[in-house]
Specification:
Helix content: over 70%
Number of domains: 1
Number of helices: 13
Number of strands: 0
Largest sheet: none
Strand content: under 5%
Structural class: mainly alpha
Radius of gyration: 18 Å
Distance between the termini: 22 Å
Length: 289
């Protein structure tokens, strides 16, 4: 039950990120947006775990897992996802991201040797139907108009990185506290964006609006520090294969937050959300198959 609460709260904040990112990207490019996001995220995690920061010895013992999860899983996902969005549509991107549970289960079965259960496949299929219905705004005939391009391939690559991230959390975070593991992997992601920042440069911070700073503070503290902390804690408890299905709640969460950003909530949001919830329930139903 604890894992369900952790993962549900995490996906709520990850869904909110879509709206906050729109505000941030109006004033900066995607590399600077990533820089500010993980800067605030790392600072928030340092404050939360100030009394129990990891020792140098503990970091050295877990350096391989931290580096692989942070640079490959987390930074790789963010980099390719934002790059893909430059050449992809929102519908295509959301559909591809919805494949994450399938990718995670497949990768988990290869790396962690987890079994693939029939109820997992059934739940993923039901949830994917809900996500698709939600993305297509209830007009299922418009699926024939979807065309895939190079940006979609980049988002698929991002999806693979995030699936690897889920599996790496389960594999490498067993000998270090979840808070410290989240802090150190987020630090890796921050270093990655800081390394790329000179390529595009940084805007004069004095020109940024109050709304920008509120959005980037929220996406850093809530959508990064708290969301990744709870997400990785949930993965540690139930495993990457079972936790990944909760990724399908993110489009529903984004839809639910739409009314706060002057966007209208429609019936298809509710129907799509119902399918997603049923899919999550089916996936987590005990099975011996």
């Amino acid at each position: 039950m604890r894992a369900i609460i952790y993962l549900a709260i995490a996906t709520i904040f990850l869904g909110l990120n879509f709206h906050l990112a729109k505000i941030v990207l109006k004033e900066v490019d995607f590399i600077e947006a990533g820089f500010w996001r993980f800067l605030f995220g790392v600072v928030a995690l340092v404050i939360l775990g100030f009394k129990n920061l990891p020792s140098i010895k503990k970091v050295q013992e877990n350096l391989k897992g931290i580096s692989f999860t942070g640079f490959i899983g987390l930074f790789g996902f963010n980099l390719f996802f934002f790059l893909g969005l430059m050449n992809s549509t929102a519908i295509n991107a959301a559909l591809i991201v919805s494949l994450n549970p399938v990718l995670t289960i497949l990768i988990s079965s290869k790396i962690l040797k987890t079994s693939i259960k029939k109820n997992q496949l059934a739940g993923i299929f039901i949830a994917l139907m809900g996500v698709t219905y939600l993305i297509l705004k209830g007009n299922i005939t418009s699926v024939n108009d979807i065309q895939f391009n190079f940006g979609d391939i980049l988002i698929l690559i991002a999806n693979i990185f995030f699936a690897l991230h889920h599996v790496c959390v389960k594999k490498y975070s067993t000998t270090i506290s979840n808070l410290n593991f989240t802090l150190l992997t987020s630090l890796c992601c921050f270093i990655g964006f800081a390394f790329l920042l000179p390529i595009t440069g940084m805007q004069n911070i004095l020109t940024h609006s109050y709304i920008f700073w509120m959005a980037v503070f929220s996406i850093g503290c809530l959508g990064t520090a708290l969301a990744y902390f709870l997400w990785q804690k949930g993965i540690q408890i139930i495993g990457a294969d079972k936790a990944s299905i909760y990724m399908n709640i993110i489009p529903l969460s984004a839809a639910m937050f739409s009314f706060l950003f002057n966007e209208t909530l429609h019936v298809y949001h509710l129907l799509g959300g119902l399918f997603i919830i049923v899919g999550v329930f089916v996936t987590n139903k005990p099975s011996t198959l």
